[in-house]
Amino acid sequence: MQAWHVHENGEPSEVMRLEEAERPTPGDGRILLKVRAANINFPDALMCRGQYQVRPAMPFTPGVEICGETEDGRRVIAGSVLPHGGFAEYALADAAAVLPAPDSLDDAEAAALHVGYQTGWFGLHRRARLEAGETLLVHAAAGGVGSAAVQLGKAAGATVIGVVGGPDKAAVARRLGCDTVIDRHSEDVIATVKEVTGGRGADVIYDPVGGTAYTQSTKVVAFEGRIVVVGFASGTIPSAALNHALVKNYAILGLHWGLYNTKNPKLVQHCHEQLTELAARGAVKPLVSERVPLSGAAAAVQRVADGVTTGRVVVLPGAENGAAA
Fold it and tell me: Does the pLDDT of residue 321 top 50, yes or no?
């Protein structure tokens, strides 16, 4: 089979190599999947750089999120078991953790429903307890993680403010359903949030960015508001001023979705059922901005790493020219 391998750390476009490889052999508790689609996540880029908390032995194949086909023909979604990731024709997954792919979504959309939407669901519903009528602010609202949170927030009945970088991303955020879109390149985020909320601020803030975005969040979070810390795509991990959280009476909530797979796997299954139902009635639909063939994976991972993409970029190993699947 063909698979992308990382032999050394560096930028994805420089260290990912497409090579011939043996199909991985599943051990106890593992399952071999034919990859139908592999969604690109920011952690894939971080792993290439050696900056992610998970550091698989080299050479490894990135691609942590896939829609695959089992040997008996079932279409499933799963997180890959590294070092045998999804940017290959075949990948390994934990047999106990595979989930049925929703019939309402194609392969690329199904691959993108997994980590980002599960993270959004747990962040907004399990951690922040978002309620209908509340105001949700989403940083990087046009990105893969942010776009999922926007859709889930709207499905929950929240008023959604999306923060983006640039007019193209602003247009995407509006199409996703944001009630207010703020271009951080040309608008004052803090002043605009205060203006559109009548000075009250946002009840829930979803932050996959960190850095300056987190600082802005602390200035616009409402009384009894909740800031959900999802990641640090900016590359800067902020230091929380706990005296500020005390004085303004807000909560800082960390979210590590992967822990639920070991701490409470039944809740992951429940989440998937909720997401499948939302997808079936059209309340959520992953925004797939690019579908690329396997040969284009390294360049696509680099674009995600550089922050120039919107929605999800998905690798289709069975496509010769990026045709939809």
Answer: no
Query: Is 291 in a helix, a strand, or coil?
Result: strand
CB 223 within 8 A of CB 204: no
Q: What is the mean pLDDT of residues 94-122?
A: 96
What residues pair up with 135 in beta bridges, in sequence order? 159
DSSP labels for 77-142?
EEEBBTTB-SSBSEEEEEGGG-EEPPTTS-HHHHHHTSHHHHHHHIIIIIIS---TT-EEEEETTT
Residue 228: the pLDDT is 98
Place of tokens 């796997």: 265
Which residues have C-beta within 8 Å of that of residue 257, sequence separation ≥ 6? 115, 118, 119, 122, 123
Residues 6 or more apart in contact with residue 239 via CB below 8 angstroms = none
Question: Of 223, 215, 226, 222, whose CA–CA distance to 254 is shortest?
Answer: 226
Q: Please provide the DSSP assignment of 161-198 as one string.
A: EEEESSHHHHHHHHHHT-SEEEETTTS-HHHHHHHHTT
Pair 257, 283: CB distance under 8 Å: no
The pLDDT value given to residue 234: 87
Per-residue tokens: 38:
């592999």
